[in-house]
């Protein structure tokens, strides 16, 4: 008996891009210390008051089936938050609560794509994007952004593939690059979507991690609210990664369909987790700033280290908890560099190739260890790259 084509082809016959991460975790399991600069996991745990609220409401009895669409108070709180931050009137009926951001991405693509439809997304991309598209029996099509342009996607490149497509997925602030799409970029994207009648799926889970400029939700642009699905999550903004709670903001008729989908899949999110999420949101922006602050601080540390050397280049990151570093001067691919760094210094980073062809020759560094460990690891990384360049030059002249 064979598995379905849908599930057996989710990776497109290739890798899922996580081999270096898996090797680092295996080393740790075997007792070898590794500094992990790989996944987007805070180095702090969920705040104790949030967990205490989760505990309180669970003991209070909110452990049965919760409303499939999400508890009304949480949907209202998210709608109010989105309205205040974007200026777009948003109601409870525009919100469905999901089992994390990844579940929201899968649900959003299910809502707007039929089998065989083409779904566009920007390269570099978060590693699950193409598999998510294949998982709904659609056809993924990457649109390459360019390191020389700070990975701001060109609307003309999107438009060149838009006629054959049904949807476009974007992610700003961006994982893996840390780039925040500027207004010109987003206006260009919006124009392509309107011209070619594309659904836009906007992954905005890093919207509280802005280091320079501002976050603009494309749903706030002219004519975009009726064709945009926004993905949100408590994972990054409130360090609630393991709680698996996110949402989709969408036109009301799409939310109605998503509720039907949830009825036949997840059957909702546990009520006590939703209560904890509501409590967390009610702590306000000051709490979100506190959660984001370590990454702002480490970004500043990284800039000082990187400007003191000339081998490792940096894509300016205006948001998110990542940096994209250019290591092409070493002569190695991102993957080869990541394996060599792990073997030589027990420092784990993600190869750029894990996130698409556009990031080849780069590595993604997650700013997710304490300041001292991060500083040591980044200095070691730069010294390692310098040694590779020196050895390469010596070999060329021998």
UniProtKB/TrEMBL annotation:
Listed EC numbers: 2.6.1.-
GO terms of biological process kind: amino acid metabolic process
Domain Aminotransferase class I/classII large: 34-380
Names of the cofactor(s): pyridoxal 5'-phosphate
Pfam families named among the record's database cross-references: Aminotran_1_2
SUPFAM superfamilies cross-referenced by the UniProt entry: PLP-dependent transferases (SSF53383)
InterPro entries named among the record's database cross-references: Aminotransferase_I/II_large, AspAT/PAT-like, NHTrfase_class1_PyrdxlP-BS, PyrdxlP-dep_Trfase, PyrdxlP-dep_Trfase_major
MF terms in GO: L-aspartate:2-oxoglutarate aminotransferase activity; pyridoxal phosphate binding
Sorted UniProt keywords: Aminotransferase, Pyridoxal phosphate, Pyruvate, Transferase
Catalytic class of the enzyme: transferase
Catalytic activity of the protein: L-aspartate + 2-oxoglutarate = oxaloacetate + L-glutamate
Family: Belongs to the class-I pyridoxal-phosphate-dependent aminotransferase family.
Protein name: Aminotransferase
């Amino acid at each position: 008996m064979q598995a379905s084509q849908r599930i057996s082809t989710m990776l497109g016959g290739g890798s899922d891009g996580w081999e270096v991460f898996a090797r680092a975790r295996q080393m740790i399991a075997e007792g070898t210390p590794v500094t992990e600069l790989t996944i987007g996991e805070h180095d702090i745990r969920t705040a104790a008051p949030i967990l205490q609220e989760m505990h309180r409401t669970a003991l209070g009895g909110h452990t049965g089936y919760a409303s499939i669409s999400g508890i009304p108070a949480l949907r209202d709180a998210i709608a109010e938050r989105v309205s205040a931050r974007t200026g777009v009137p948003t109601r409870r009926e525009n919100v469905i609560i999901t089992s994390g951001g990844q579940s929201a991405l899968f649900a959003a693509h299910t809502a707007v794509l039929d089998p065989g439809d083409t779904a566009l997304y920007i390269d570099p991309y978060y590693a699950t994007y193409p598999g998510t598209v294949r998982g709904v029996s659609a056809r993924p099509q990457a649109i390459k952004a360019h390191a020389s342009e700070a990975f701001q996607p060109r609307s003309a490149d999107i438009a060149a593939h838009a006629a054959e497509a049904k949807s476009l997925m974007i992610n700003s602030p961006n994982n893996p690059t840390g780039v925040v799409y500027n207004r010109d970029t987003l206006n260009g994207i919006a124009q392509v979507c309107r011209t070619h009648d594309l659904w836009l799926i906007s992954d905005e889970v890093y919207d509280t991690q802005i280091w320079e400029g501002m976050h603009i939700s494309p749903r706030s642009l002219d004519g975009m609210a009726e064709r945009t699905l926004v993905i949100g999550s408590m994972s990054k903004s409130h360090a609630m990664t393991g709680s698996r709670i996110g949402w989709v903001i969408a036109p009301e008729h799409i939310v109605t369909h998503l509720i039907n989908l949830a009825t036949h899949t997840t059957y909702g999110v546990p009520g006590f987790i939703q209560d904890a999420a509501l409590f967390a949101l009610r702590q306000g922006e000051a709490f979100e700033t506190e959660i984001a602050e370590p990454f702002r601080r480490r970004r500043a540390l990284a800039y000082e280290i990187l400007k003191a050397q000339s081998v490792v280049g940096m894509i300016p990151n205006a948001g998110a908890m990542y940096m994209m570093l250019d290591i092409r001067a070493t002569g190695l691919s991102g993957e080869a560099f990541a394996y060599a760094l792990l073997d030589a210094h027990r420092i784990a980073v993600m190869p750029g190739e894990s996130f698409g062809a556009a990031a080849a020759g780069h590595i993604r560094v997650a700013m997710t260890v304490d300041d001292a460990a991060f500083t040591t690891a980044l200095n070691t990384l730069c010294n390692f790259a310098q040694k590779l360049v020196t050895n390469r030059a010596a070999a060329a002249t021998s």
